[in-house]
């Protein structure tokens, strides 16, 4: 049961706390991206190992979503937020002491489980707090968080000491503060029976949301597959193609993708969901086509222009997918549907990138990236057939 009445003052604090927490978890998720080439130089591992390090994070996140993703519907939001924060603090500690690939893998596994738990419970808590602002914050915070994590780490690597550790110390401090502030966070869900049964891995999609889920799925897959590529192989691709050696390049590239996505979300937040999905499809396809052109021209500036266009499609597609499905769930179905949404999204986030990492060994990074881009274009074409065939936006509007 969701408590319907939260005092206005408590509601404001709650909304800010949940947004900052979600932003922090996603910032931590992208923090290692600008460091991958430094890890590679220090420990001499391949592109396949790099994508494995990336993929174990996403697979661990999926494991969390499939098991504890809806647990907060039964135990309450606060206990699950606390558990996620403590696990994330442990992950930051592993990153700080990491001196080999094995330590890095362990840190990413623990971080993935913490993030999976957090995205589900924080997303559901945001919807509890505000049915109108909740989907918008759920859309903006992850993108802004990834931008802060990637760009912030790049700046620390370029201009500060302890390049492989300072970002993790700062994030550890943030999560420690959030843990203390959790004492002030009012609970929004009463306990109910069924907690143990909810741990059985399952995907939960309410009947009323299934049609919308299938309609948005090709766009969502393309969006997250693009994100997975940018957080794993794109920085290496740009360095190899253009010859750039700046430590800022990788973080700036991820920030360009996510910030343009956040800008698209904010500017389109009042538009009907179907219209947003359509625009996201067009922008994503255009951006990927420009990425192919940048690959052939080896122009760093064109890479960033292409990323801005693709990022706008990333944001529009993400917002349209969220707004066309999540508001259709009832209160007791929100965490379960949120978990299912992220399970599908993170499968698209990690599996194509992992496959690409192994393809690099046989075909090279540039050829693999070209095939990857063509696959994204094919998904956009498939999405266009479904989305532009709709007669009205009314059935998809949130």
TrEMBL record:
Keywords: Cell membrane, Membrane, Transmembrane, Transmembrane helix, Transport. It is found in: Cell membrane. Pfam families: MFS_1. GO terms for molecular function: transmembrane transporter activity. It is a multi-pass membrane protein. PANTHER family: MAJOR FACILITATOR SUPERFAMILY MFS_1, RESISTANCE PROTEIN MDTM, PUTATIVE-RELATED-RELATED. This is MFS transporter. It comes from Pseudomonas donghuensis.
């Amino acid at each position: 049961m969701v408590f319907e009445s939260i005092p206005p003052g408590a509601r404001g604090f709650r909304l800010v706390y949940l947004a900052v927490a979600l932003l922090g978890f996603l910032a931590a998720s992208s923090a290692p991206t600008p460091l991958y080439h430094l890890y590679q130089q220090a420990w001499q591992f391949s592109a396949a190992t790099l994508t494995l390090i990336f993929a174990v994070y996403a697979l661990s996140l999926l494991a969390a979503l499939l098991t504890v993703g809806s647990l907060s519907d039964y135990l309450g939001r606060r206990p699950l937020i606390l558990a996620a924060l403590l696990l994330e603090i442990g992950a930051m500690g592993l990153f700080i002491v990491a001196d080999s690939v094995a330590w890095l893998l362990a840190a990413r596994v623990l971080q993935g489980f913490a993030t999976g738990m957090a995205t589900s419970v924080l997303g559901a808590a945001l919807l509890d707090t505000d049915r109108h602002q909740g989907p918008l914050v759920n859309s903006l915070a992850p993108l802004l968080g990834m931008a802060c994590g990637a760009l912030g780490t790049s700046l620390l690597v370029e201009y500060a000491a302890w390049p492989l550790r300072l970002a993790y110390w700062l994030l550890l401090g943030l999560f420690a503060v959030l843990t203390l502030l959790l004492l002030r966070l009012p609970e929004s869900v009463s306990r109910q029976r069924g907690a143990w049964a909810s741990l059985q891995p399952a995907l939960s999609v309410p009947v009323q949301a299934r049609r919308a889920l299938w309609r948005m799925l090709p766009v969502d897959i393309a969006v997250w597959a693009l994100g997975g590529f940018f957080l794993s192989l794109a920085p290496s691709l740009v360095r190899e193609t253009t010859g750039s050696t700046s430590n800022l390049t990788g973080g700036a590239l991820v920030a360009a993708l996510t910030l343009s996505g956040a800008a698209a979300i904010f500017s389109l937040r009042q538009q009907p969901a179907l219209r947003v999905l359509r625009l996201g499809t067009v922008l994503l396809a255009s951006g990927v086509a420009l990425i192919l052109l940048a690959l052939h021209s080896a122009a760093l500036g064109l890479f960033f222009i292409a990323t801005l266009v693709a990022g706008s499609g990333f944001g529009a597609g993400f917002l349209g997918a969220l707004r066309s499905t999540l508001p259709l769930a009832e209160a007791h179905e929100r965490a379960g549907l949120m978990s299912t949404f992220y399970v599908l999204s993170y499968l698209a986030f990690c599996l194509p990138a992992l496959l690409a990492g192994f393809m690099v060994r046989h075909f090279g990074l540039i050829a693999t990236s070209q095939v990857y881009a063509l696959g994204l274009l094919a998904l956009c074409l498939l999405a266009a057939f479904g989305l532009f065939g709709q007669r009205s936006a009314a059935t998809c509007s949130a």
